[in-house]
Design a protein that fits this description.
The chain has helices spanning 16-29, 48-55, 81-86, 97-101, 107-119, 132-136, 140-151, 157-160, 188-206, 208-213, 224-231, 248-259, and strands at residues 5-9, 38-42, 61-64, 91-94, 123-128, 170-174, 216-218, 238-241. α1 packs parallel to α2, α5 packs across α7 and α11 packs parallel to α12 (248-259). The longest helix is centred in the last third of the chain and has 19 residues, at 188-206. The radius of gyration is 17 Å and the shape is globular. Strands 7-6-5-4-3-2-1-8 form an eight-stranded parallel β-sheet. It has twelve helices and eight strands. It is α/β, with parallel strands linked by helices. It has one domain (5-259): Aldolase class I (TIM Barrel). It binds 1,3-dihydroxyacetonephosphate.
């Protein structure tokens, strides 16, 4: 069985004080002895260091929400994968729909970032997902296939599988854009269908072993009330949680729903 993976994407929310308090509450609930589920929080960049301190005595991993593809140099305002690794970041979220649709990132940009992040020893959570118009036009699979092959272009299965005991693997997140922050969740059946499609594409492009090992998270209005039925789907290996990750009261029941699966 693939180890479930629940991640909280805090997006551009919290303050230094409230972020650290939230991290502390999550860390307390997931001590190092509870490692059957991977749990991660991805705070805003300026709070990575203080959140990392709060997570020190827990099994909770640290995530970042973006990076640039260059190591260093004259790229004002950007942050390299090496800098994130230096701050103990385990995984970086790449290709989130907010970066694709608000910040204009292309599959080509995302591919450069995925390649650079994996090369720097970071794990990558690569987000893919269709808009409502694309779903209604029957283009969901086409969009998912394009974003997957675009994001992973030029990468071989052994670069995506992660090292022994390391967190430098590829994780996918299926996040239908119409379900993000809207309260509209994909039904468990819709999520399962998209996840199974993505796993099939991974098998076609990178082989059965990688497809069987790769975790695919679902993201889009995941809440304590719907987490268990989503996580029960055979190809749903975790959740990428936005709004509900901003309070321990909402995030921890989702984490517990994942523990209940193992
Ligand atoms: O975008 C998301 C996580 O990356 C999902 O956000 P919500 O859980 O707020 O819908």
């Amino acid at each position: 069985m693939r180890r479930p993976f629940v991640a909280g994407n805090w997006k551009m929310n919290t303050t230094a004080a409230s972020g650290c308090e939230l991290a502390r509450a999550i860390a307390e609930a997931v001590p190092t002895s509870r490692d059957a589920v991977d749990v991660l929080v991805a705070p805003p960049l300026p709070y990575l260091d203080c959140v990392d301190d709060e997570l020190a005595k827990s099994a909770v991993m640290l995530g970042a929400q973006n990076c640039y593809h260059e190591k260093e140099g004259a790229f004002t305002g950007e942050v390299s994968p090496q800098m994130l690794a230096d701050l103990d970041v385990d995984y970086v979220i790449l290709g989130h729909s907010e970066r694709r649709h608000i910040l204009g990132e292309t599959d080509e940009d995302i591919n450069k970032k995925v390649t650079a992040a994996l090369a720097a020893g970071l794990g990558v959570i690569l987000c893919v997902g269709e808009t409502l118009e694309e779903r209604e036009a029957g283009q969901t699979n086409e969009v998912l296939a394009r974003q997957l092959s675009g994001g992973l272009k030029g990468l071989a299965a052994d670069q995506l599988a992660g090292g022994v005991g390391g967190n430098d693997d590829l994780v996918l997140a299926y996040e239908p854009v119409w379900a993000i922050g809207t309260g509209k969740t994909a039904t468990p059946e819709m999520a399962q269908e998209a996840h199974a499609f993505l796993r099939g594409k991974l098998a076609e492009g990178w082989g059965d072993d990688l497809a069987a090992a790769t975790r695919i998270q679902y993201g889009g209005s995941v809440k304590p009330a719907n987490a268990a039925e989503l996580l029960a789907q055979p190809d749903v290996d975790g959740a990428l949680v936005g709004g509900a990750s901003l309070s321990a009261e909402n995030f921890l029941p989702i984490v517990e729903a994942a523990f209940a699966q193992v």
